[in-house]
Fold these 2 entries.
Entry 1:
Amino acid sequence: MNKIIVVLFAVLVSLPLAGTLAGIDGADPATENREMAPFPEWKGTWASARDYPAGFERWFGDHFAFRARLIRWYAESRMFVLGVSSSSSVLKGSAGWLFYADDGGIEDYANVEPLASADLASWREALVRAREWLRERGIGYVFSVAPDKATIYPEFVPRSIQPVGTRSRTAQLLAALQDTHVAAVYSRPELIRAKPRERLYFKTDTHWNDRGAWVAYCQIIDAVRQQVPATPPPWSRAELDPVNIEVPGQDLARMLGLARVLHETDLRLIPARPRRARVVEPPGITDPMSEVGRLVTEIADPRLPRAVIFRDSFASRLAPLLSEHFQRAVYLWQNDFDAQAVLEEHPDVVIQEIVSRHLYEFVASPELVPR
């Protein structure tokens, strides 16, 4: 009996290697929220020879036979048998909700630690300096904080995680800006009021859906219009048709290897009239939601203002809506203010968007804003 067990174990252990040698690629890029390692390139140089073993190890780790299936089986056993997440980066909530546990997400929800006085002062100085520098050039400025998902749907967060502080870092920052002229947009109160009507965030993704993004977009455009009156008013819900689309599990499900197992409904908003904005950069990209470092949209209407938007991933669902208001909109994937980019684009308004959890991972640098 022991010999049979040893033989079976040896067979199971050797199957991935045997399958790989037989040409079976176990990678499934559609189910993972990252790029898979490429096969290392042999260039006939000492440098490529030195790097080849590590490159091959990375490739084999991502592509060995049956890899995706084994990951899925492990994740399914953890999720559906033990009732826990298979990844420390993903928090399993109730009723099918998943939450991002990295990047300050849990700390942001639990108000683990307030902003240090020096960090709060840096944020205030950076935003005030940006506003003043832009005002001197006749450019409007709107600072927007996107609420993290757990702060909108705390009822689905595991009860084992409870807020330990009474005040969030976002609340600290907004309070520090009250006696300044910085136009700050934080859409959490409006999202809380809107959520009884419809779901505003994905269940298997860390981001808001179209309907949550629309709430924030309306506030951002209203703030822009106060400084740049030529900006058209936000699209109303009557101009956007609600459409429900069944989709595979999104980014958090992919992080678990369960994108093909978990499914949900994407609550979309489809324009009832044609969109005018078109992506002009980078070449070959047509979707304004594309998550690239620099994305530019244009509308052939010189009456419209121009915009520069510093953003993170929460602006992806905002971009199709925001772009309809600007002759040219330049989206730059970065948290820091970039004066040189502004000077090159000559915008009428700058929008700076950041998700609330990044206040745990990022501190603004006032020295980047010229005096």
Entry 2:
Amino acid sequence: MSNIVYNIAKEKLSEGLLDLSTADLWLMLTFGYVPSVDGDSFVIAATPYEVTGDGYSRVKLTNISLARDTVNNRMVLRADDITWNQANFQADGAVIFVDTGNDATSMLITFLDFDGSKRSQYTPFIIQWSAAEGILNIR
């Protein structure tokens, strides 16, 4: 599996109905979720695979920025790294979504594949974004 951008997000971006720099973006961790770029549109599709365990909760992305990269001809979405302290869970991917307060209407943006399972046993579970690549690149 690899990282994907859901088609609903592409559609809303192209229609001017989604502004990633101002959207209420959240992240949830998953285990065993196989996303469908066409078939999945809302968080409810991924909730059966959401991680459970001590120290886990969904996290709001902070210090979001969307910057133009003129060298690579793209837009780069960035946010602060995420840490769950004293975490006891296992995840193999993450979903970023626009939170509406209802999983049935919270739009999926991107699925990030961890390329294998990552486990934390009462230690910090950290997602550190690449300084150069950010979270998401729009070309």
